[in-house]
Amino acid sequence: MVLLVISPFFGIVAWEIKRDSPGPVFYHGRRAGRGGGATAPLPNFSSYAASKAGLARLAETLAEELKPFNIQVNVIAPGMVDTRLQDEVLQAGNRAGGLYEKIKLARETGKGAVSPEIAADLAVFLASEASGKLTGKLIAAPYDPWREWEGKGDELNATPMYTLRRLDPLTIKPLIGKLEVGDGEWTTLPPSSPFHFSILNLKRV
Fold first, then answer.
1. What stretches in the chain show pLDDT beneath 50?
2. Which of 13, 50, 51, 154 would suit a FRET pair with 163, their CA atoms being 20 to 30 Å apart?
C-alpha cells in the first residue's frame, strides 16, 4: 500500500508546479494492463493490487483537476518486465499463487516476458507532442495500440476507453461503441474508428 502514500505526494508536487510547468505526468503502474492488480484480482497480493487500482484512480482524478493547467496525467502499465519483484515471487514459491507459475515460465522460456524498452517508448510518446492532450488513461504498454494514437488525444479523452470503470448497461454502451437508437435497434461506430471492435451476443438489458 506504500504507493497509495507516495503517489499522492507526487500529485501534490504536480499541483504545486502547475502554474509554471505545463506538460505530461505519468505513473508507473506495473502489470496493470493484463491482470496485474489494477484491472483484475491478484490473489495473495491484495495490498499490491489495491495500491495499483488506487494509483490508476488517483491519476484519472488528477487528470481532471489539472486539465485547466495543461498538465496531462497517465499511468503506464509496462507488462511483465523482469524486476526484483519477480525474484521475490520466485522465492515465495507456491505462496505467491498463480503469479508464481507465470513468472517461472517467463524466466525459463521468455513466454509473457516484456522488454522494459516498450514502456520506455510509451513514456517518450506521452512526453511528446504526438500524444496531444491525452490524459487520465491506464495504458498497457505491450498490448494497447498507443503507437496509432498520434493526433487522437481529444478523441480518446472523449471515451471511457483505457480507464477503470464498473461495467453496467450505462457504462458498457459507450465502451463498445454501440448506442440504442430506437426499439431494439443499434448503431455501431465504423470499422475505421480507433474505438471500434465487435462483441458477440450483445443483448438488450
1. 5, 32-33, 178-205
2. 13
